[in-house]
């Protein structure tokens, strides 16, 4: 039996430097906006839809998200890096996807894996440490449960280790290779109990 492998390549985007458009303002839009801003409160986002849920408007206000109350238009893809479509019209979602592809924009049609250039993942954040989880689009529920599991088991003070090593690395003398060796020697006990 051949085992499937996840070949997606994860990256950690500086969304404060990117222009993100969310098409739609309903339940799914709120869910995507919530996870996006939870992980990246500094994301630069605009939302376009004729109708917005009250909770979406509240969340948007909290995170300086620009609200545009009208139907999606092609011109709204100008000067955009990423577009996420969440409308209840498969036709509109498909159009967003096709226009985005033409412009080489990264596109996610929420909950429609075949119309996604990337997937949103489960995300665990502890200070400077962030873990992103994907099930290759196969089981969002598993991604959510794994996220909850790692939120529990990763100690809140994991960031102290990062901060301390960041300080320590500034004090080490020597060339690049010596520094790498010192840092590796210093931390090897973290994974090898012997
Ligand atoms: C991780 C997370 C992030 C986020 O949403 O930002 C995320 N989905 C989450 C939850 C969730 N979504 C759904 C359920 C109900 C259970 C279920 O239906 O399975 C639950 C669970 C729940 O809510 O309990 C519905 C759903 N989602 C997709 C489909 C279509 C399909 O699978 O074919 C359907 C069916 C729609 C329908 O019935 O029509 C598809 C996608 N959802 C993804 C991401 C991408 C793959 C991620 C991966 O590789 O694992 C992908 C491919 C595209 C995308 O949307 O990016 C977030 C958890 C965040 C957290 O808690 O930390
Ligand atoms: N609610 C869920 O949890 C859920 C789960 C799985 C699948 N879905 C599916 O996802 C889709 C969206 O669900 P929802 O609950 O967010 O719907 P919703 O009715 O809450 O929101 C739909 C949004 O799309 C907007 N919209 C419609 N036409 C538009 C256009 N031309 N341009 C811009 N925006 C437009 C509406 O104004 C509204 O803001 C539906 O097809 C639904 O069946 C929803």
TrEMBL record:
Gene3D superfamilies: NAD(P)-binding Rossmann-like Domain, Siroheme synthase, domain 2
Residue ranges constituting the Siroheme synthase central domain according to the UniProt record: 127-151
Entry superkingdom: Bacteria
Listed pathway(s): Porphyrin-containing compound metabolism; siroheme biosynthesis; sirohydrochlorin from precorrin-2: step 1/1
SUPFAM superfamilies: NAD(P)-binding Rossmann-fold domains (SSF51735), Siroheme synthase middle domains-like (SSF75615)
Listed GO MF terms: ferrochelatase activity; precorrin-2 dehydrogenase activity
Name the record gives this protein: precorrin-2 dehydrogenase
Organism from which the protein derives: Leeuwenhoekiella nanhaiensis
């Amino acid at each position: 039996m051949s085992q499937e492998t996840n070949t997606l390549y994860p990256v950690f985007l500086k969304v404060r430097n990117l222009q993100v458009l969310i098409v739609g303002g309903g339940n799914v839009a709120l869910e995507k906006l919530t996870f996006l801003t939870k992980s990246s409160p500094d994301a630069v986002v605009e939302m376009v839809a004729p109708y917005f849920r009250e909770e979406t408007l509240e969340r948007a206000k909290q995170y300086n998200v620009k609200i545009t109350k009208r139907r999606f238009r092609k011109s709204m893809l100008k000067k955009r890096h990423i577009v996420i479509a969440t409308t209840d019209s498969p036709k509109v979602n498909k159009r967003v996807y096709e226009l985005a592809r033409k412009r080489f924009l990264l596109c996610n049609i929420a909950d429609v894996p075949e119309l996604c250039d990337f997937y949103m993942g489960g995300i665990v954040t502890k200070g400077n440490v962030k873990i992103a989880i994907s099930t290759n689009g196969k089981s969002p529920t598993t991604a959510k449960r794994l996220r909850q599991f790692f939120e529990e088991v990763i100690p809140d003070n994991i960031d102290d280790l990062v901060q301390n090593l960041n300080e320590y690395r500034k004090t080490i003398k020597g060339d690049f290779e010596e520094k790498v060796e010192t840092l590796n020697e210093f931390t090897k006990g973290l994974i090898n109990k012997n």
